[in-house]
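TEACHING EXERCISE
Course module: macromolecular assemblies
Task: Read the component lines below, then compare them to the predicted structure of the full complex.
Student: A.B.
Group: 4
Components provided:
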Amino acid sequence: MGLTLAEYHRLTPLPRPGGVLYVKPGARGFRDPVYDLLQKTVEPYGQKALDLNPGVGWGSLPLEGKMAVERLETSRAAFRCLTASGLKARLALPWEAEEGAYDLVVLALPAGRGSRYVEASLVAAARALRMGGRAYLAGDKNKGFERYFKEARRLLGYGEVVRREGPYRVALLEKEREAPPLPPLWQAFQAHLLGQAFTFRHLPGVFSAGKVDPASLLLLEALKGEVGDLRGRSVLDLGAGYGALTLPLARLGGAVTAVEDDWASVLSLKASLRANGLRASVLHSDVDEALTEGEGFDIIVTNPPFHVGGAVILDVAQAFVEAAAARLRPGGGFFLVANPFLKYEPLLEARFGGFKTLLVREYKVLFAAKEGGKP
Ligand code: SAH
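Instructor-supplied answer key:
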């Protein structure tokens, strides 16, 4: 039945020249053909390198020890691996890099995060390089590589594809012109949820940018039918994004804790709470890793992730269910919304001893309780 929560959180050491490389489920950039091709291609150039999408650090690993390598990473899971591996990393967005400071930039195109995020990353790469500096770009031609490579040439200057394997590509470019300013990053939109108006603010790359996901709407509708007032109740939102579930549940009076692995989403959620005069405890966390041991909740909600760059991955979603089972208080209720083809039912049956299907439309909302009564 997949991974236990302890297995999910465990870091696995792999041998590498001069040390170990830690990997874990839910952390990007390992056993990924784009990173593999990058790893086979990168060569040192100058003194200072910057990896703008390192994941666990595999792609730029050959540079380690040959030049100073800095890494900006947004995922808590990946960041944990980087620091455990002793690889220098900072929790930051790509566009927070120091300007004109690097001889070499390495970027595995974050294609799964949408074109606004990729484009901002490309401008960030151009700004971080010194004049004459070089950039490696790695990507998949089925996920926009050609278009982004063209954009990178427009920003930087000369460039060519230096390696191809199947649909995967690595290009090497050189900075020949001044970089443009960063594009505007913050966006906002309004949404009506549970009959109330909310303003959401978000950075590029967040889940369901510009419009609340219909699955999240369905979860709220189902939850409203089961629980009324949330005053005095503790609520956990697993994988909170910019807060499509957190904000309305906080508005209903719940004491909400939101956990989210992605730093751009964490910043977006904090900005959204402020924009609506609401409060919640927001934690940058790989599943429940940032919660204190034994911390329990009356209501747990999730619209779990199941795609990473096109591949269905269920490790994280399963860990969400395991975390919910571990942290739901007796008498509490767990609400999960999912694509109908995803089979969460056996796992809910095994961990909670039963479940109910509350709503089925384009998505299904499942409910499980911890013995001790209704939520
Ligand atoms: N609750 C939000 C977002 C749902 S999408 C909404 O309804 O709109 C799932 C979210 O889970 C994404 O924001 C994603 O960044 C986050 N996520 C992915 N892996 C995670 C992990 N390991 N730990 C915590 N959050 C994670």
